[in-house]
Amino acid sequence: MTARRRAALLVVPALCGLTSCGIPPTGVVEAGGPAGGVVPTVRVYFVADGRPAPVPRRAVTPIGAASAVEVLLQGPTAEERAAGLESLLPRTGTDLPSAVPADPGRPSATEASRAPATKAPRAAEAEDFAKVTTRDNRVSIELSLSSAHYMPGLAVTQLICTAVEAHRVAAPGEEEVTAAVAGEDGRRIEGTAARCPDG
Fold first, then answer.
1. Which residue, among 164, 182, 163, has the nearest Cα to 67 in the 3D structure?
2. Which of 56, 102, 111, 181 is 20 to 30 A from 135, alpha carbon to alpha carbon?
3. Domain extents for the chain?
4. Per residue in 72-124, pLDDT tens?
């Protein structure tokens, strides 16, 4: 009897033993929660003592410039505000800022009658205030304001630093990332990570 035939004869009883042991076949057994791992985080930039301040945030969506700006617009938590952190950007769920700064002088009756009607402010959603797109190593942030130059410089820095940092995490290894903030008039303010503190 050849060695191959002997091996085959030994396998047959083993298989029979396995199938006749009385244990029914089972499907997938679900037990416990999903496998854990590292929770993705993104750094958003608030303001503390007149300077940009990075704060880690848990990312609930894939990390990218758009999702990071959305998190940024939620503003600091109550605890963070108590610790001195603030944001100079409109907070999600609050009124959108007016497109043009208010004129401190009171218009005459004639000027008031010629002034165009304005809509009442409405609650801001992240996509209403800032539309974020990325291409290669550039991030573009289009604001609903008539001009980005009406925003405080630190508010623009918050947007630039948050977008640049998130894009660097989402696409590591790329060359220097540049973010540009623009209003509806097309005037742009650009920046890189050079203006952003690490912590």
1. 163
2. 56
3. 41-97+122-195
4. 999 999 999 999 999 999 887 554 443 333 333 333 333 333 333 333 333 44
Cα distance between residue 36 and residue 195, in whole Å:
35
CA torsion 121-100-71-76 (nearest 10°) is -90
Q: What percent of the chain has pLDDT over 70?
A: 61
d(CA 110, CA 55): 50
Residue 152 CB contacts under 8 Å (≥ 6 apart), including other chains: 88
Residues in the chain: 199
User: Please, is 96 exposed, middle or buried when counting C-beta atoms within 10 Å of its C-beta (0-12, 13-18, 19+)?
Assistant: middle
Pick from 135, 164, 130, 131: nearest CA to 54: 164
Query: If you search the block for the tokens 């085959």, which residue do you land on?
Result: 8
Task: Give yes or no for a contact between 126 and 70, defined as CB atoms under 8 angstroms apart.
Answer: yes
- Measured CA to CA, the distance from residue 137 to residue 32 in angstroms comes to 41
* Residue environment code for 20-56, b if the CB has 16+ CB neighbours within 10 A, otherwise e: eeeeeeeeeeeeeeeeeeeeeebbbbbbbeeebbbbe
In terms of phi and psi (left: phi > 0; alpha: psi -120 to 50; beta: otherwise), the region of 57 is: beta
| Mean pLDDT score, 51-78 | 90
